[in-house]
Amino acid sequence: xxxxxxxxxxxxxxxxxxxxQPHAQTVQDALETAITKFLTVPVQTVCAGRTDTGVHxxxxxxxxxxxxxxxxxxxxxxxxxxxxxxxxxxWAQRVSDDFHARFSATERTYTYVILNASVRQPFWQGRAxxxxxxxxxxxxxxxxxxxxxxHDFSSFRSSQCxxxxxxxxxxxxxxxxxxxxxxxxxxxxxxxxxMVRNILGACIQIGQGRQPVSYMAHLLKVxxxxxxxxxxxxxxxxxxxxxxxxxxxxxxxxxxxxxx
Length: 260
Prior knowledge:
Layout: E1 2-10, H1 27-39, E2 46-47, E3 56-66, H2 72-80, E4 87-95, E5 107-116, E6 129-131, H3 137-144, E7 149-152, E8 167-178, E9 181-188, H4 195-207, H5 215-222, E10 237-243, H6 253-257
Helix pairs in contact: 1-2, 3-4
């Protein structure tokens, strides 16, 4: 058996999340159907992080096991030939048997794109979260610094989250404004269910002046989701990259967002 890692990009708008469902309208369902057609045998995949309905993937990583030999280029072109336009394999690599797309990952990075303009822009529909009120970026940046390091993120955790522990380590949280767009990049060892969207909800409240800068630190202290801000829209949220020790995979998001 060979273990193959695939880099997957997808527009999450037409799909009801990543994880396979009986109705088969998910990214995983479409991907596994395409791989099965390519190999002519059923295949199951394991992903680095299950994204919600409407959330996009630029750097999703999956692995699968197969006895069928194919070149890396054949994997990319062959599977893409059976995928819809909203999903695409970006790269393929053979990896060691101990590689695991989820459990081997040590860091995950998400980027949230916010359109901060008085009038909505149809071309950003589904690709950016729209906030028409003016946002105080400096206040948002100051508040975000409270989240760096290891914390109990219970206040930012969905009630449906199945993680055994609410403790996560936030390695970096950066906010950059370019024109009417604000890019929020979050890098952590792992994320809880809705954690990114709930952090964004708190940031927006602070940026709008509805809450003080100290609100973010307060939420960390109380560990109470009921005191948190509303969960922000999935529009504009991208899983941008996943890091694995000992493995070097292509990073698609650098050129896509042009934030370097």
